[in-house]
Each structure stands twice: as structure tokens, then as C-alpha cells.
Design goal:
single chain; 235 residues; mainly alpha
Length: 235
């Protein structure tokens, strides 16, 4: 039980019974759920198609690559020594990340075009929802880049290029990781515009990959800034 739950459940004989781990959802009869729509979606996807496999590899590889390289740089300063400057090293890694992301987008587009459209999604309202998502996603990505700058966007913290203070304005006032979720919104919008069921699956994989990356990046970045605060206290 969390602290908040304890505060709202003082000790006493009238304490309500705790919920089960699934929040009471075990009372739902899953056998009566209509899975027809999901089954129809999966029928339109060829999971063995080579373009789909390439796209999945690109999606998973990208955040894995930049996290491994950035942590290695933080630990060894190997890239900074190689390029003679942490800024040049950060620019170089950022350029590679941009190229990898362009290839990821290309591979996802190829996979969407290689597989069947779904008539359920091939509607005008779905198309315009996709357009709206791409506008929103682009807004989040561009505004995040403008707020952080190049080094702030491309892991400059790991190169010792730290920001003076945490950015809290838009779009960080809306979501904590606008660059990631803006990118995911763009891919979802692209899938809806193309009426692509495989695009929906690939977007879900992108979201999961970003979620995992955030779990690694968030605490490590906080640790970097905590280390700076401790150094300043001892100066």
C-alpha cells in the first residue's frame, strides 16, 4: 500500500477491503469480449515480411545505440578525446542519431507500403485524425528542440554539457518527454493516414521502445545533475 493510500485509510475497524492487484478487473468475463476487430487487424499483417522485420530492428536499435554510446562517453570521455571537444563529439553523435532516425522512418514507411491497407481505417475522418496527430507531433518535436537546443536534445548532458536549469516551459509543461511522444504521434498519424494496420503495430513498438529508453535515461540524467550539485557544494 502506498503512502497516499495509507493517509486515506487510517487504522480502525471500518477500514475498507483493499482492491485486488488488478483493481477489481478479475470480475470481468474476458470470454465475452469481442476480439473480432483485433483479429481482423492481425489478419492484415504479415509478421514474416522482411520490411516489417527491418523496421522493428531499426526501432529497437536506435534508442539502444544512443544510450549505450552516451553512457560510454560519460564514463570514459572517449568521443570527446577523439574529436578534441565535447561539443564536436556531441554534434557528431547527434548527426548519427538523426541519420538513424531518418532510416527508421524510411523503413517504417517501406513496411507500411509493402502491406495491405485496412478498409476499416480507410475513411475520411480517420485520415484527418492522422493529419491532426502529425501536426501535434511535429509541434512537440520542433518546440522541444527549440527549448533544449542541439546539445540539450542530443544527450549533451552525457558529454558534460549541462544546462543551467531544468526546462519547464512549453512543451515540457504539457508532457515530460515531448520529443519522444511527439515522434510517436507522428508515426501514429502516418499509420492512420495510410490506413495501415502494420503501421499501428510499428507505432506501438516505437512507444514501448521509448518507454524503456525513458526508464534508463531519466534516472541517469538526474544522477548527472545531482553529481554537479554535489561538486558545487564542495567548491
Amino acid at each position: 500500500m502506498s503512502a497516499a493510500e495509507r493517509n486515506h485509510n487510517p487504522a480502525g475497524n471500518n477500514r475498507p477491503e483493499p482492491l485486488d492487484c488488478c483493481g477489481g478487473l478479475n470480475n470481468v468475463d474476458y470470454s465475452k469480449m469481442d476480439l473480432t476487430l483485433m483479429e481482423e487487424l492481425l489478419k492484415h499483417i504479415n509478421f514474416h515480411d522482411s520490411s516489417f522485420c527491418v523496421a522493428v530492428i531499426a526501432i529497437i536499435f536506435n534508442p539502444f545505440f544512443w544510450n549505450v554510446v552516451a553512457r560510454w562517453e560519460h564514463r570514459t570521455r572517449g568521443l570527446s578525446r577523439l574529436f578534441g571537444s565535447p561539443y564536436l563529439a556531441c554534434y557528431a553523435l547527434g548527426f548519427v542519431i538523426v541519420l538513424l532516425n531518418v532510416y527508421r522512418s524510411h523503413s517504417m514507411t517501406v513496411a507500411m507500403r509493402a502491406q495491405a491497407r485496412w478498409e476499416v481505417m480507410d475513411r475520411t475522418d480517420v485520415f484527418y485524425v492522422g493529419i491532426a496527430l502529425m501536426v501535434l507531433g511535429t509541434l512537440l518535436v520542433v518546440s522541444s528542440f527549440l527549448a533544449l537546443g542541439f546539445t540539450g536534445t542530443f544527450l549533451g548532458d552525457y558529454f558534460g554539457i549541462l544546462m543551467d536549469e531544468k526546462v519547464t516551459g512549453f512543451p515540457f509543461s504539457v508532457t515530460e518527454n515531448p520529443m519522444y511522444w511527439g515522434s510517436a504521434a507522428n508515426y501514429l498519424g502516418l499509420a492512420l493516414i495510410g490506413a495501415s494496420p502494420v503501421g499501428l503495430v510499428l507505432t506501438a513498438i516505437v512507444a514501448v521502445a521509448y518507454k524503456v529508453a525513458i526508464r534508463f535515461e531519466g534516472p541517469f540524467t538526474e544522477q548527472i545533475y545531482q553529481e554537479r550539485s554535489q561538486r558545487r557544494k564542495h567548491e
